[in-house]
Design a protein that fits this description.
The complex is a heterodimer. By secondary structure, chain A is an all-beta fold. Chain A is 0% helix and 49% strand. Chain B has no helices and 11 strands. The chains are: A mainly beta, B mainly beta.
Chain lengths: 113, 112
C-alpha cells in the first residue's frame, strides 16, 4: 500500500513569506506527527494529532507555526513570516495506534532565503 | 531540548563485528523506539519496546530497556556494510497526546 507522502519535496521561499507543507498519512492511521530535522541532528518534535485534534502542540517553536488536520487524514503545516532559521527538513509520520511505531514520509526540504 | 541521548555519537566497525549503541532518557516513558536513517533518506522504524518489557529481538537486532536506569541499548549482530546509517532512539510518553522525542543519533559506519 501507499506510504506517507509529503508535498512539495522541496520548497524555496523568501524571508517573510507564508508557506504550507502537506502530509498525506497512511490510510487508516489515526495518529500523525510533524517533526523538523536539521543536518546532523535528530528529528525535533513539533506537534501530534490524534484524529482531527492536536493532542500535543508543545513543540511548535512560536506562534508563526500552525498545523491542521480538519478531516483526520491529510495535515497541513503552516508557517507565517518565514525566517532563515526555519530552513530545515520537515518530516511527517503516521502511526496506526497512538504512540506506536511511526511511518515517516520523505520530508519537505524548506529553504528560506 | 532532546530527551534521548545516544552514545557513542559515531561508531566505525568492520563488517561481521557487532555494533552496540546506547540511549539514555530523562522522564518516564510509555515505550522506546529505534529508527534508522540512511544518508539523505527517510527514517525507518526498527523496533519498539514497551516500558514493561526488558528485551526484544528482531532478526539481527536486539534491544534492551532498563527503566530504573532510564537507558536502552541497540545491538546489531554480524554487521554488514548495508547497516551503515544513523540510528536514533525515540521515547514516547503520554502528555494528553503521545509526544515522541528523538535523540541526536549514532552514526554507524561499517567497513567492508
Amino acid at each position: 500500500g501507499a506510504g506517507v507522502s509529503q508535498t512539495p519535496s522541496n520548497k524555496v521561499t523568501e524571508k517573510g513569506k507564508y508557506v504550507e507543507l502537506r502530509c498525506d498519512p497512511i490510510s487508516g492511521h489515526t495518529a500523525l506527527y510533524w517533526y523538523r530535522q536539521s543536518l546532523g541532528q535528530g528529528p525535533e518534535f513539533l506537534i501530534y494529532f490524534q484524529g482531527t485534534g492536536a493532542a500535543d502542540d508543545s513543540g511548535l517553536p512560536n506562534d508563526r507555526f500552525f498545523a491542521v488536520r480538519p478531516e483526520g487524514s491529510v495535515s497541513t503545516l503552516k508557517i507565517q513570516r518565514t525566517e532563515r532559521g526555519d530552513s530545515a527538513m520537515y518530516l511527517c509520520a503516521s502511526s496506526q495506534t497512538p504512540g506506536g511505531e511511526q511511518y515517516f514520509g520523505p520530508g519537505t526540504r524548506l529553504t528560506v532565503t | 531540548s532532546q530527551q534521548g541521548e545516544e552514545d557513542p555519537q559515531a561508531l566505525s566497525i568492520q563488517e561481521g563485528e557487532n555494533a552496540t549503541m546506547n540511549c539514555s532518557y530523562k522522564t518516564s516513558i510509555n515505550n522506546l523506539q529505534w529508527y534508522r536513517q540512511n544518508s539523505g533518506r527517510g527514517l525507518v522504524h526498527l523496533i519498539l519496546i514497551r516500558s514493561n518489557e526488558r528485551e526484544k529481538h528482531s532478526g539481527r537486532l536486539r534491544v534492551t530497556l532498563d527503566t530504573s536506569k532510564k537507558s536502552s541499548s541497540l545491538l546489531i549482530t554480524a554487521s554488514r556494510a548495508a547497516d551503515t546509517a544513523s540510528y536514533f532512539c525515540a521515547t514516547a510518553f503520554y502528555t494528553g497526546g503521545f509526544k515522541t522525542i528523538f535523540g541526536a543519533g549514532t552514526r554507524l559506519f561499517v567497513k567492508a
